[in-house]
Structure formats: structure tokens, C-alpha cells
Amino acid sequence: MTPTARRTALLWVARHAPAIALALMFLGPLVFIALTALMTDRQALTSDLWPHTWNWGNFAEIFEKAPLLTWIRNTLLYSVLATAFMLVSSIPVAYALARFRFRGRRLAFLLVITMMMLPPQVVAVPIYLIWARFHLTGTLWPLILPMLLGDAFSIFLLRQFLVTIPREYSDAAKVDGCGEFRTLVRVVLPMARPAIAAVALFQFFYCWNDYYGPLLYAGTDLDNWTLSLGLAAFRSVHRVQWNLTMAATLLAMAPVIIVFFFAQKVFIEGVKLTGVK
């Protein structure tokens, strides 16, 4: 390496030192999990950080010792349906709050913000009793069906983005004969893709990592366990086999990391633009 190239590299490292330190801080636990997942059960209990042998069979073994495919299926069902229902119900509400002028609009928006600040544990008991009367406890439907009524956080973010779209576009569509629904579908939604992607990823990640909801409603039925619930039980059973626990954890984290890796650009853009008024 020439002195000029070395100087350029050192300047780049010095300029990005805080970002490099933060990246190492966040990547450190992930690397530790990956390396432990490839160790033997005995080595995983030692202070060694590098595997003596690469035990790729650990990933196959966890499928034999736990119904991982069932947990993945339930988690996908919960995450995908809840996200789809949230988008179908939240987008029209956010559009109405952003574009329509009606009596009580400010009060409705205030109620949305209030629901964002309401902890779910406060209403857990009465909501549980309601679902118990419909005989849906023991399943994931009490977590999926409420998304048909909208999500306060998603409505807030979508509304903040929709108010930034100039009204001239929707007015031009109405002049051409489009109704409100057609204007929403043909004009507004294509322009709101970053915000829609952002709220969809937020909801998907929340459902994928949710532990409290499945524990409350599906904790008594093993066939409806999700990954988060199953991993907690798997760790309790295999508490001395940290290599298997880390392998199962890595498999549970992989889909979320892959989705965010491919959608990070639109996700960041949507989060950034939803804060602009």
C-alpha cells in the first residue's frame, strides 16, 4: 500500500470512527451467536470464542428436537395476515384524516394518538374475556383479527406522510372523473409506497418478535406456538446446550435480517418522510 493510499485509508477510518464503533457494537452479539451455534455442546460452555470444529449439523438437529417448522408456519401466518389486515384497515383511515374535512376530525386524530400511548397490558384482561366468549383463546386469531380495525401507530405514520402529498395530484384525478376510492388506489397509494413499506415492515417485525401476545392467547396450545414462544421453551429444555439454542435463535433471526437487508432503502426513506409535515 502506497503512503497516499494508507493516508487516505486512515483518514477514512478516523472520519467514520463513531459509525464503525456502533457497527461493531451491533454486529458483535450476532457474530457471537453464529460462532456459538457452530460449536459442540461442551465447547459452548467454555470461554472459547472460536469453534474448534464447525458443527453444521446443529441446525439439522434442532429440527429433530423441536417442531421448528410448525413454529415458523404459525409465525408467518401471524405476521403476514396481521400486516395485510393492518394495511387494508389503516390506509383508508389515514387517508380520511389527511384529506377529508369533517366535524370531529381533530378529535379523531387525537384519539389515534391517545391509543398509541395506551399500554396493551391495561386492557389485556377485558379483551381476553371477550375473545374467550367467542372461544378463540388458544389460537392466534385474537392477535390477527383486531388488525382489521386498524393500528394507531400505522395510522399516525401514514397520515403524516399523506399530508405531504400535494393536493393538486388528487384534484387533477378528480377532474378526470376519478372518485375518492379510485384516487386513493391510482394516485395516492403509488406515491405513498415508502410510508406503506415502512409501516408494513414495522408491523411484520413486531409480529415476528412478539412474545407477550402469543403467550397470552396461545400459550396453552402447543400447535399454535410462534417462534418467540417456542424458543423460550426450547431454551428452558436445552439450557446446557447453548449451541442448539444459538442455532435456533439464528434461524429465527435470519428472515427478519434478510427482509430488512433487501428493504432497508425504502424502509429508511419511509421513516424519514413520515416525519415531514
UniProtKB/TrEMBL annotation:
Membrane topology value: Multi-pass membrane protein
Locations listed in the record: Cell membrane
Gene3D superfamilies documented for this protein: MetI-like
UniProt key word Translocase: no
Gene Ontology CC annotation, any one: plasma membrane
Transmembrane segments: 20-40, 76-97, 109-131, 143-162, 183-206, 244-263
Record-level GO BP terms: transmembrane transport
Residue span(s) of domain ABC transmembrane type-1: 72-263
PROSITE patterns hit by this protein: ABC_TM1 (PS50928)
Record keywords: Cell membrane, Membrane, Transmembrane, Transmembrane helix, Transport
Family matches, as InterPro entries: MetI-like, MetI-like_sf
Keyword field contains Transmembrane: yes
Family: Belongs to the binding-protein-dependent transport system permease family.
PANTHER family in UniProt: ABC TRANSPORTER PERMEASE PROTEIN MG189-RELATED, ABC TRANSPORTER PERMEASE PROTEIN MG189-RELATED-RELATED
The protein, known as: Carbohydrate ABC transporter permease
Species classification: Bacteria, Bacillati, Actinomycetota, Actinomycetes, Streptosporangiales
